[in-house]
Amino acid sequence: MTAAALLEDTVDLVGIDSLLTETEISLRNEVRDFVNTTIKPNIAEWYEKAVFPLDIIPQMAKLGLLGMHLKGYGCPGRTAVEYGLAALELEAGDSGLRTFVSVQGSLAMSAIHKHGSEEQKNEWLPRMAAGDAIGCFGLTEPSAGSDPASMTTFARRDGTDWVINGTKRWIGLATVAQVAIIWAMTDDGIRGFVVPTDTPGFVATLIEPKLSMRASIQCEIELTELRLPDSAMLPKARGLRGPFECLNEARYGIVWGVMGAARDSYLTALAFSKERMQFGKPLAGYQLTQQKLVNMALEINKGTLLALQLGRLKDAGTLAPHQISVGKLNNCREAIAICREARAMLGGNGITLDYSPMRHANNLESVRTYEGTDEVHTLILGQHITGIAAFR
Description:
Elements (H helix, E strand, L loop, with lengths): L2 H6 L13 H18 L3 H7 L7 H6 L8 E2 L2 E2 L3 H14 L1 H21 L2 H12 L5 E4 L15 E5 L2 E12 L6 E8 L2 E8 L5 E5 L11 E12 L11 H35 L1 E2 L2 E2 L4 H30 L4 H25 L11 H11 L6 H13 L6
Parallel strand pairs: 3-6
Antiparallel strand pairs: 1-2, 4-5, 5-9, 6-7, 8-9, 10-11
Keywords: FAD, Flavoprotein, Oxidoreductase, Transit peptide
EC number: 1.3.8.6
GO molecular function: fatty-acyl-CoA binding; flavin adenine dinucleotide binding; glutaryl-CoA dehydrogenase activity
């Protein structure tokens, strides 16, 4: 067993692997190998240069990572647990790379798969699963983040067409996407539209510079008199339930993913503390260091068990929205604390890109914010517990 494998073996304190099937372990190991060989050797450079590596998309497609939990239309049709394990391994590389898989599969592809017509599904899903087309998901606006019901993007009828005007912000992949799922207010409430990004009136602009999620793409979209045929509307999506069903898919992936960032930070701190000599012995030999490592490992084990339980519920078709909020709130909160603690254990070395924890912690500032802030998920759970909505 390699030194890296020996360190990895310290993560699973309670035998979580015994709860996984051979197929799940095989898929996890395949994605882990991809991350170790393709992402980790390059991620510091990608992050520093603020580059999203488009050339790895075909490799991700070949691994079956794009829309991997969706069935039919060329999609891989893997289980929720398998998707979660893949998300965990991808985010051990970098949150930005896991976010690409989430935007493509859990948001854009899920919107078409859940709410689209057969024509829309057949046109886009096979190409997106193969990595030949990239999608984005336009919900958030400059003044409508946690409260999407207040969106001002509006689609008006003009004969048999729709004409859309508005602005979307913090939209992943929009400058490189071939298709956008745009949510807009209409006279009949919120509706979704499948928008080819070469449609006149669609302009996407990169948001930069950023201190977080640098190896990923976030954009602002301007929609100006953008004209679409009636067939562009997602026929099965009405009201906020449409985008929220897609957001819950993405939130589920985050529950797993952030444990990957936490695990990588823990392993980095563990390896460093075993090699770093201070006052005549390695840092790992001091009680305070061991306490920090133990606390990290405990939270990673608890967070992974929580993710696995949610995955089993999802595969059984019984996962409730408030349960996703439990995972998103808890695991993001614990993961960012682990990454920050790991950074501190590295001392001054921890602020360089030679080590991953500060990069992970910076990324998690975004992950903790998108798909529902801590406050939003707290209020979702508060409403579930008390029966009283306290959002306003």
